[in-house]
Amino acid sequence: MSTNNPHTDETTTSESTTDHVLELTGVDSGYGDVQVLDDCSLHLDAGEIVCLIGPNGAGKSTVLKTVFGMLAPWEGTVTYHGEDIGGMAPEDIVRDGIGYVPQTENVFGSLSIEENLRMGGVAREDGLEAVIDDLYDRFPLLDERRRAKARTLSGGQRQVLAFARALVMEPDVLLIDEPSAGLAPNTAQDVFGHVEAVNDMGTAILMVEQNAKEGLGISDRGYVLDQGTVRFDGPADSLLDNDEVSKLYLGG
Description:
alpha/beta; six-stranded mixed sheet; four-stranded antiparallel sheet; globular
């Protein structure tokens, strides 16, 4: 099933010798005996937002789960700052500096905002109070409702809390799965603004987004996955302007 990708952007190919913050090389992965990723290769550099798009079942969320240690790669490597992390436990990956915001069940509904943030920092050895205070400064809506139960928040507010909780460990890479899922367009725009704000804090972001145009619109680069492998990649604006990508994956 693996094939060379004739659409790979030349700039991306020429950068393959640089030191990437996060890199997947020739990764096969899946669930049980069902293969989802097939010879999947992609990378994330410091300060970037990179968006993964593609049809349902293409393997986008599987990429994030494989990076985060929820799935072990069958073949290939996952490296973080040059270290092979393939198959490491998620708690060790968090300590190393990678955060993860899943699409669903990404906050504890029965706990307050304050308690959620503290849960996000259970692996910190020091500095928890200072980092939570800083997050309240960055996300005032959380500060205003710090004693409110997470289940009382709107969908967009829950996403902001999920981002903030993942940031308590001060990761330099954040994996985000479908941040706009189930949100009204105006709320989704607000959430995308928060994604950009997190990136402005110095956190590199690898994001899966079903709303491909909006996701690419805030990204530096993108990858189009189909049947578990990369079909197209390159600068986000070039993917948005690519007629074949638009016809097949953007509804153009």
